[in-house]
Amino acid sequence: MSLTGGNRNDVTQLLTLLDKIPPAAGVVGRPRRRPDSLFADRGYDHDKYRRLLWQRGIRPVIARRGEPHGSGLGVFRYVVERTIAWLHGFRRLRIRWERRDDIHEAFLGLATCLITYRHVQRLC
């Protein structure tokens, strides 16, 4: 995970994030190291990043600026927005007060464990 300041543009961290994706086990054979496609909103609509994704063998599915909604990306984006809202339910994570990255990441991990525990309790 790469932790940056809150005033950084998300698109500048796109390639760093892709490089840190762990291998995903699945079918028999070598584990996958990169996704087939990348879903993103209009903030990532830059030809430079589209080109870099194609060079890595990743198909960009990025909404275009200036075009009406209806690309279908909202279905996938909802999952991310909902998860961020759950994390913001923990007051300590709404605003980052810790100066040290490891402490902030520990609170993120703890919040993730608590969220998972709550959902498992609902299933039982």
Would you kindly provide a written description of the structure presented here, covering whatever features stand out?
This protein is mainly alpha-helical. The protein has 5 helices and 2 strands; from the N terminus they run H-E-H-E-H-H-H. The protein has a two-stranded parallel ribbon with strand order 1-2. Helix 2 links the parallel strand 1 (37-40) and strand 2 (59-62). The longest helix is centred in the last third of the chain and has 23 residues, at 101-123. The chain is globular and about 40 Å long. It starts with 13 loop residues before the first helix and ends with a helix. The model has no long low-confidence stretch (mean pLDDT 81).
Keywords:
single chain; 124 residues; globular
Mean pLDDT: 81
Using the CA coordinates, give the radius of gyration.
17 Å
Spans of at least 5 consecutive residues with low confidence: none
Assembly category: single chain
What is the ordering of alpha helices and beta strands?
HEHEHHH
Provide the spatial order of strands within the biggest beta sheet. 1-2
Instruction: Give the strand content.
Output: 5-15%
Q: What count of structural domains?
A: 2
The backbone outline, from C-alpha atoms, is globular
Structural class: mainly alpha
Cα distance spanning the termini = 32 Å
Q: Helix count? A: 5
Helix content: 40-55%
| Number of E strands | 2
Largest sheet: 2 strands, parallel
Q: What's the structural blueprint in terms of helices and strands?
A:
Blueprint: H1 14-19, E1 37-40, H2 47-55, E2 59-62, H3 74-88, H4 91-94, H5 101-123
Parallel strand pairs: 1-2
